[in-house]
Amino acid sequence: MKKNKVFRLSLGWQIILGLVIGVILGVVFADNKKFIAFANGLGSTFINMISMIVLPIVVSSLIVGISNMGDIKKLGKIGLKTLIYFEVLSTIAFIVGMVISNFSHLGYMLDLSQLSHVDISTYVKTAKSAAHNGLGSILMSIVPSNFFDALATGQMLPVIFFSSLFGLGIAAIGEKGKILITFLQAVAEVMFKITGWIMHFAPFGVAGLIGATVAQLGLASLKPLALFIVMAYITMIFFILVVLGITSRIFGFRIMDQLIVVKDELILAFTTASSEVTLPRLMQKTQKLGVDQAISSFVIPTGYTFNLDGSAIYQSLAAIFLAQAYHVHLSISQQITLLLVLMITSKGMAGVPGASFVVLLATVSSIGVPVSGLALIAGIDRLVDMGRTAVNVAGNVTATLVIGKSENEFDQVKHDAYVASFRNK
């Protein structure tokens, strides 16, 4: 006799259910400080659990992948190609955002008197602090003076740099290094197993995060900026389906295949507004999609810092939108200048908390918009952040496949079989 199958919701549906419950609880407990504190605590616990395992996975997987590659010239070529790809796609994302914001003219429809003041002092403080660092300081900080300090403070780029060198060192000593490879491979597998356990808590973390957001904002406060939210999401969907779609097609992939395979991770990124929570599973899934371990272990953590297509779209949309709201007319030359400023400041703020909003703080004054004007969209930043985070994740998946294919470190048969397994579900 056949056993009856127990009906179980997939992780994606569990997270969506958590999102719905969180919204309902946020409406019911609007402005309830005890609920907000509890919900924030629930969400923060989930984010912390994921953060706990990200760096061990990056270190172990990257060292194993690079040691198997064993070629410093090849690593340098992959690194350069990856950074060029990130820069090209980010620039396209900026341009897409600016073009759509220019054609929509939504900023002119905004009645500034409808919007209450929102405190942005925390962002201002962060922007001032980050401005002293700049792009040059970030590039200099890639080489860590203390690897363990970089681990403790969660600095991704120094960790990637050290892990890459360590992997090359293991490859250089040959047979003696195999015991380290075996150990680190086991560490990676253990961390991926723990990731699976933590994901069971994801729906509760999502419910807490979105519940606290809705309880603090209130649905009524969203009405004046509803058009901006809609415009942002339409632009982001366009970027995924058209820009990433064309990019994927050029290299022989289909964007819908990617979206089907990582749909749970996209939902998780969207509901938590955190790319970090998806990093372990993306590394695992891109390898199952046929990309070599060395490529996925390098491209995805690097993209976490540099490949922020969703953030680029938001920054350019918001800058033009605010200029229109204040009736500041921008000529073509001024908009080109704005594009260049955004490209520079977005790299200089990489890894800064609330980076997208901080970039705007460092940029809008160059087009005549008062910094205080950012209070207009600060209240809805979290809701737009959910969408731009999902775009960042989708962009990193495409980037990993493209770099893998271009380096001939890609298994098409493995890719097709893994995609087929999702279509048959």
Automatic annotation (TrEMBL):
Its main location: membrane. One of its GO terms (biological process) is dicarboxylic acid transport. One of its GO terms (molecular function) is symporter activity. It is found in: Cell membrane. GO terms for cellular component: plasma membrane. Keywords: Cell membrane, Membrane, Symport, Transmembrane, Transmembrane helix, Transport. It comes from the Bacteria. It is a multi-pass membrane protein. SUPFAM superfamilies: Proton glutamate symport protein. It holds the Pfam family SDF. The chain crosses the membrane at residues 12-30, 50-70, 82-103, 150-173, 194-219, 225-246, 325-345, 357-378. This is Proton/sodium-glutamate symport protein. It comes from Ligilactobacillus salivarius (strain UCC118) (Lactobacillus salivarius). The lineage of its organism: Bacteria, Bacillati, Bacillota, Bacilli, Lactobacillales. The gene is gltP.
